[in-house]
């Protein structure tokens, strides 16, 4: 689709969108003790703005929205259990030690960065150990739930 009447140049009006798949991601954690962890699943990343409707006199077919602050949901991360205790020690530390940031990066099939979310001042709010069964043949999975103060898109 060309852009007509722009001085002779042809420029696309519709920019091609690149969709990302959910299976190529990496979570980078910045903490004081500098441990690293790989995750197989990341869920719950969301933000919702609180608001209050305000009804103004004489304006019977509309409302005014009084906007509040963004509220962020907890993020859940899953990974295979390893023999390195630093991750679990951070996850269950008392008092909790905030990670300065979690950076969640999603890649396309070619390995190019498609989207990056940075969560700041991340604190662990829950940890769940693996389900263990004598006849299981799967990897033992642990689950970490975190809360955070801010979310930015890079």
Percent in strands: 35-45%
- The arrangement of helices and strands along the chain is EEEEEHEEEE
CATH architecture: Roll
Our Rg estimate from Cα atoms comes to 22 Å
How much is the average pLDDT? Answer: 86
Total beta-strand segments? 9
Largest sheet: 7 strands, antiparallel
In the CATH scheme, what's the topology name? Pnp Oxidase, Chain A
User: How many individual domains?
Assistant: 1
Flag low-confidence runs: 1-5
Cα-to-Cα separation, first versus last residue: 30 Å
Query: What is the tally of helical segments?
Result: 1
Q: Can you say what the CATH homologous superfamily is?
A: Hcp1-like
Global geometry: extended
CATH C-level name: Mainly Beta
Helix vs. strand class:
mainly beta
Give the helix level as a range of percent: under 10%
